[in-house]
Design a protein that fits this description.
- Chain B: InterPro entries: MetI-like, MetI-like_sf, ModB_ABC.
- Chain B: It comes from Anoxybacillus flavithermus.
- The complex is a heterodimer of chains A (about 350) and B (about 230).
- Chain A has two domains: about 220 residues, Rossmann fold, CATH 3.40.50.300; about 110 residues, no CATH class.
- In chain A, about 25% of the residues lie in helices and about 35% in strands.
- Chain A contains nine helices and 23 strands.
- In chain A, a hairpin with a 2-residue loop joins strand 4 and strand 5.
- Chain B is mostly helical and about 230 residues long.
- Chain B has one domain: MetI-like fold, CATH 1.10.3720.
- Helix content of chain B is about 80%, strand content about 0%.
- Chain B is built from eleven helices and no strands.
- Chain B starts with 7 loop residues before the first helix and ends with a helix.
- Classes of the chains: A alpha+beta (about 350), B mainly alpha (about 230).
- At the A-B interface, strand 7 of A face helix 6 and helix 7 of B.
Chain lengths: ~350, ~230
Amino acid sequence: MLHVAIKKSFPHFTLDVAFTIEKGIAGILGSSGCGKSLTLQCIAGLQSPDEGLIRLNERVFFDSSQKINMKTRYRKIGYMFQNYALFPHLTVSQNIAFGLKGKPREEVEQKVATMIEKIKLNGYEHHYPAQLSGGQQQRVALARTLVTEPDVLLLDEPFSALDHHTKQLLEKEFLLFIKENFAGVVLLVTHNMEEAYRLCDQLILYDEGKVVQVGDKQQVLNEPSNVKAAKIVGCKNVWPLDSVAIDEEISCYVNGAKIMVPRKKERAHPRFLGIHSHHIRFVEEQSYNTFDYEIVECIPNMHAHDLTVQTKHFTLHVTVPTNELHAVLSHERKLYLPPDRLFLLS
Amino acid sequence: MVENVNLFPLFLSLKVSTIATVLAVIIGLPISYYLSRSNGKIADMVDALITLPVVLPPTVLGYYLLVLFGRQSALGKFLEEKLGLLIVFTPTGAVIAAFVVSIPFFIKSARTAFASIEPNLLNAARVLGRSEWNIFFTVIIPLSWRGIVSGITLVFARSLGDFGATLMVAGSIPNETMTMPIAIYDALLAGNQKLANLLVMIMTIVSVTLLYVIKRLEKRIIRGERSFHASRSD
């Protein structure tokens, strides 16, 4: 269990976050400069918070009330840096052995050999980092960290140094490798929602140094709790509410249009209504939550089209699969907002 | 004819420069490391103080050293009475003069090399359990090796060629404190142009040879690294 509750102030930025991760892979998601990497650095002891508490299981890394600030080298942390930070003057073997100083030579050699076997870099033992591909460098960085058997694993944008194609190939392998070789808490930092969704179990959404939502990834993605969280998870349709009437169902009014939301979605003080662009559907029959529409803009994408659609009351962004595009364009249908997919935001 | 030439100034010059270079490296390394890590007011002051010998005329520098180490000064008295160490008009004085004149070149060079190391490499070493002391020798020094070598070359060259400060502090006592540049000046002053010419020639040949050897050595290190990389890359 990793517990973090810290504050750190800079002239133009304040980090003030608190979260607890019980187990599994948690992702910190947010735009650049929101304090994601800074959080990792504080956990590793590379930066000191102004106040707060950082605790891993029973070990206290930092506690301002007791003036505890454990040195980085005693924290037993696995840290993978954004550009991997492999030592350019050391070979693959020497890089992996770097964290095993003080252990008997045979043990070091055996552990390094096992690791090289695991990351499938046999024959590359005496190569230097500059001679490796991006994916190989990533594996060496991961091996160098995991060979020390850390108590927690921190990953700072593990895929940002790789091109899009390589990244897609390696993601699955990377995840599998971590799951097979590491049992503790993993904290991953990324600005890419899809990457976070594929790799993590839990998400922590950051905005300007604050946590805006923490939870299971499905829940965070499908039901963001506020406008900032909705923006971070990539929700393009957020409308301010005129008024809300709670009956057997919740009737929401947006620019005069009545939209029904199921009762189970109730939230205290709702101020906005949102829906993901890919959850909006087009149906043939008129019912509640259906609207006539006009298409304002159509941008073709690889597997779908991004439409901007205008109804009498509001404008929406809709993602339509290419095979349904024809029916949508010919205006034979009605726009439908599935009640289960709608969410109220505070 | 060469047999008749007194080569003492050459050997003294080489000895003084070597000792001054070793001192500059030992004292310069921690200072350059400190300067590369901090940009506060104190660091700026230290930096200004260290750059001063480059800007000041060597005679002014020599004068300051005389005032500092002279037999009348507190430091000079202390060194003479407690340690039996005489600075002024001794070879030790020549070493100190050469050291002060040349150390800025080492610090500038080493500092730039230290500062260009990716900070996350040091963080990675910390996370992997290494102490700051250990990181200095296993990561920082190997990665800034080239800058340090070129710093050493500069220091040695500057020490070998110093005239003004050495003359002020160590004087020009033949067979005692007379270094090569001073011997050349002395020969010219005495109207012995033949000797001056010869000494100038020797000095030039020795300097060029030394710098060439250092350059080759540096290249060999770099090429060695590269060929090692290349031989393993296929």
